[in-house]
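@channel anyone free to eyeball this complex?
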Amino acid sequence: MKEIRILSATGMLGSGFREATLKHAMTLKPDFIGADSGSTDPGPYYLGSSDSNFSDSANKRDLRLMLLAGRAAKIPVIVGTACTAGNDDQLARLVGIVRDIAREEKLSFKLAAIHSEQDKGYLKKKLRDGKITPLSNAPEISEAVIDRSAHIVGMCGIEPYIEALENGAEVVIAGRSSDTSIYSAMPVMKGFNPATVWHAAKILECGAACVVQRKYPDCLMVTLTNDHFIVEPPNPEYRCDPVSVASHNLYENSTPYELVEPSGVLNTVAARYEALSDRAVKVSGSTFKPSARYTIKLEGAELAGYQSIIIGSVRDPIILRQLDSWLAGMTQAIKDRLIAVFGSDIETKYEFQIRVFGKDATMGRLESETKLGHEVGLLFQTTAQTQELATAIMKSVGHMAVHYPVPEWTGLITSIAFPYSPAEITRGASYRFNLNHVVEPASPLEMFKIDYEKV
Amino acid sequence: MPKLWQVTKLIRSKNAGPFELTFDVIFKDHATYEKVRDAKSINAAWFAKTYRLPPEVVVIINYDAASAIKITIPRPTISGDINDTDVYGGQQYGPLVELDVP
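replying in thread with the prediction:
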């Protein structure tokens, strides 16, 4: 095999692509179709709760077109990080959608499902054996952290995908996976130079994100040989240039020069980006250094508590000119009132915060701007161990806050505008990412069980 | 003196995973990029002061291939934690926009 053509259907399953683009891309005879279905971007809620960032309908729309195209051309369809975080519940959910589509469209194929959810006993043993190490800025790890996690996933590399493809899988749905492994597995399996492959995979994993002006999500296609790859968007409205392709290495990556994978590190320092036309770019020159130690990145989420919030705003210039001291006084009064209502042991059972929009609600402690506008938005937030308690606390907070005085006005004031009745809004469970660590498995497949079925 | 937004085609911030925050400043042309890069207008001391951080946590990377400067810092809170203000990290670049550059 001298060259391989790789089609990325979209940067994020469920975000969409043009049906016409996929049709056109299929005439270019890709060797497989990939899509990433997950990300940590939307936060810890998805890993913690097993919910999906996109609806089943949105995932099904994209997956149906991919499966129809893949089966018609007899090429594999590979999807990684099922339903946002790729835990076992989310894997089962996406596999369920695949089965529904197969039944509705009368498709038949061998399906592989790669499990990325990790057994807590296995991880605790690895921790005791000193086989779990922190990455930069990692929170503390202990057996207690592992125990209280709602879900822990390992980010798989290319090896489980290769195992599944070698066993004849025609559709592969994976739990948590590195985005690039979705696109690297098959080319590496076929013997292509890993340096060229991993760099191409980094460009492919966000779909059409590397075009000059991305107006909507769409497909991307790469033709790869041993020493270079060519990026050319299948959508005629899109074009790539050397800067747009090079720029993509910056995206959500702490450095544009390195990409760390379980099996090694891609280095793009020596990469060359050449325009082949006004819309195609040739990339070559990256290097790949295999790691001495094979590691799998862990992601975990634990319950932080249940939340209730109140949204309000303040327009009175008298209040605004003393906003900080007014809010500090209000916070103390709320604290005292909650002790009176719930008893003194309430202090350890909730966390209370006020966010001030118009001051530092966006940047928090990174904010250095001190000017206020003519009004501010307020977001009161309580986090407690039960939803009932969070909501009960907020009923008292709302009343304390809305009438909290300033010295300049005499008589009862109503100092906050609430847009809603009731003022308090139930937000439900809130989760926290609690791991930023890597583990050393005995083998690349040890942590990733693969189920096969004839659909 | 132009402002940074006048000589760039994109200034953005984004999570680099839930534990790091990264800023990309992509210039309109390579010559201006080189001028700003060599003048060190975006340096760790300025960035740390503007974002109220210790300078040693600020990493600045020049990326010639895309005429871009990247800044990476630890996230002040883990993405989505109860104190977090910006889950995607997408609105942290404001103070860069009005920076004076040569």
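from a first look: The interface with chain A takes residues 14-20, 22, 24, 26, 50-53, 59, 61, 63, 65-68, 70, 72, 74-88, 91-92, 94-95 of chain B (CB under 8 Å).
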